[in-house]
Amino acid sequence: MSEHFLVTGGNRLEGEVLVGGAKNSVLKLMAAALLAEGTTVVTNCPDILDVPLMADVLRGLGCEVQLEDSEVRITTPAEPKYHADFDAVKQFRASVCVLGPLVARCRRAVVALPGGDAIGSRPLDMHQSGLRLLGARSEIEHGCVVAEADDLHGANIRLVFPSVGATENILMAAVLARGETVIDNAAREPEIVDLCNMLNEMGAKVSGGGSSTLTIQGVRKLEPTTHRVIGDRIVAATWGVAASMTRGDVRVRGVNHKHLGLVLDKLRTAGAEVTPEVDGFRVIQRERPKAVNFATLPYPGFPTDLQPMAIGLAAVAEGTSMITENVFESRFRFVEEMIRLGADARTDGHHAVIRGVPVLSSAPVWSSDIRAGAGLVLAGLVADGTTEVHDIFHIDRGYPRFVENLRGLGGVIERVGSE
Ligand code: UD1
Predict the structure, then answer these.
(1) How far is the CA of 161 from the centre of ligand 1 (A)?
(2) Does 116 score more than 60 pLDDT?
(3) Which residue among 133, 327, 394 is best mutated to probe the pocket of ligand 1, counting the most ligand atoms within 8 A of its Cβ?
(4) Which of the four pLDDT bands, split at 50, 70 and 90, describes residue 115?
(5) What average pLDDT score do residues 212-220 get?
(6) What are the sequence ranges of the domains in the chain?
């Protein structure tokens, strides 16, 4: 039995919503627990499907993992196993972040490659070439990425693109390598800073987190720690965009508004009043949103993960918006579903041109990934009638208590089963 959402449009979102820990942080922090023998505790974990899936990956590697409320306790043995098999990793891509920690701890890692992804090809060449520069051999063998190292040593590594995953894997291997590693053109995302902070709490020597140069002095051993995950800026911004699209008034809590500088500026350009607050921000939109151009880029640029929401906003804005996708080539596939909802949109390669219409028109639509799914629900909130959003397991992978949160803001949404 699969489930779908029924979303009825026409309501203004109003009220307050609390955001949990960042999905794109918590999974890497859980992987980092492999780096130290003993019990590491990660708090403020979001209640999303990927957290228990990651717990299973770690169990497969010999860890004991307990999940309780928003806390995960990971007890890593003296000698973790080094093979993450396909059954454990197939359901989500982020599992590849165990590669770096396993090479560091076991000097050998075999991690099955997860399947394809709807947002575009996601090669691991930068992860592998970084590990090679640290002294590892790395190949793809029988559907697995294999990395082995007799001796890991510091190196100067310049990434050809500031990949989030490659930065994380190389960083987590370098913390236990001999000598100094410098990663140039490193990703600068807040989730990388969160990981650097946790590694330093464990006894690592990492500096430059949040800049494009990370410097790591390798240490012999790390100790377990207790670390609180930062708030999820993508979930937070989803609610902010929803407020703007529905001409609502929403206060978002549990996130650092500084992690959303450019996104909040774009909402201001769309005509929203955006007020930064100590623990979040507030978005009030009084008139129909105005058209805004967006170009996705690595942080601090506009996040590719918010591109579907930006398209939703553009679809009902006054005027024509141009959206450019620079990170994942296939992310515009979801625009077909927006067109089904009456959006006036054209794509050409990396570009989409969207002429805003006053209101969308409900239809059955299919989510292809987490963010596309959330973008379609937002579109359903400004469509006349009731929109069916299918394949919502994607949304459950990234948005904790999605229905409850949306209803709490006055959105009309129902989860129903279907044969
Ligand atoms: C992470 C996020 C994802 C976000 C993305 C970009 C997690 C779990 N996921 O994904 O939500 O959309 O960052 O902000 O944190 N690339 C290569 N070779 C490599 C690695 C990457 O060519 O070895 C390319 C990718 O195909 C893509 C681009 O680099 O075009 C960015 O990918 P990357 O930053 O690595 O994204 P992820 O870490 O996979």
Answers:
(1) 10
(2) no
(3) 327
(4) low
(5) 98
(6) 2-20+231-418, 23-219
Identify the bridge partners of residue 302 per DSSP, sorted by sequence position: 296
- Quote the ligand 1 centre to 353 CA distance (angstroms): 24
Q: For residue range 254-273, what is the model confidence (pLDDT) as tens digits? A: 999 999 999 999 999 999 99
- List active site positions: 117
Is the shortest distance between the CB of 164 and ligand 1 below 6 Å? yes
Nearest C-alpha to atom 31 of ligand 1 is from which residue?
163
CATH architecture assigned to 2-20+231-418: Alpha-beta prism (3.65)
The number of angstroms, rounded, from the C-alpha of 276 to the middle of its chain's C-alpha atoms is 22
Q: Please state which CATH number belongs to domain 23-219.
A: 3.65.10.10
The best mutation among 92, 129, 145, 161 to test binding of ligand 1, ranked by most ligand atoms within 8 Å of the C-beta, falls on: 161
The pLDDT value given to residue 203: 98
Evaluate whether 35 touches 222 at the Cβ level (below 8 Å): yes
Q: Which residue has the higher pLDDT, 123 or 42?
A: 42
* Least confident span in 82-96, 190-204, 306-320, 405-419: 82-96
- Looking from the CA of residue 126, the nearest atom of ligand 1 is 23
Ligand 1 proximity of 260 Cβ (cutoff 6 Å):
no
Token readout for 77 is: 């043995």
User: Is residue 116 within 6 Å of ligand 1 at its C-beta?
Assistant: no
Cβ of 161 closer than 6 Å to ligand 1, yes or no, is yes
DSSP 89-149: HTT-GGGGGGHHHHHHHHSEEEEEPP---TT-----HHHHHHHHHTT-EEEEETTEEEEE-
CB 113 near ligand 1, within 6 Å? no
Q: Does residue 300 have a cis peptide bond before it, meaning omega lies within 30 degrees of 0? A: yes
Task: Compute the distance between CA of residue 139 and CA of residue 47 in angstroms, rounded to an integer.
Answer: 35
Same fold, 2-20+231-418 and 23-219: yes
Query: Can you give the pTM of this predicted structure?
Result: 0.96
Q: Is the CB of 305 inside a 6 Å radius of any atom of ligand 1?
A: yes
Closest residue by Cα to atom 5, ligand 1, is 164
DSSP structural state of residue 390: E
Under the banding of pLDDT at 50, 70 and 90, the label for residue 299 is: very high
49 close to 89: Cβ distance less than 8 angstroms: no
State which of 95, 98, 99, 122 you would mutate to test the pocket of ligand 1, scoring each by most atoms of that ligand within 8 A of its C-beta: 122
Residue 114 clears pLDDT 80, i.e. is over it: no
| Planar angle of CA 34, 172, 19, nearest 5 degrees | 80
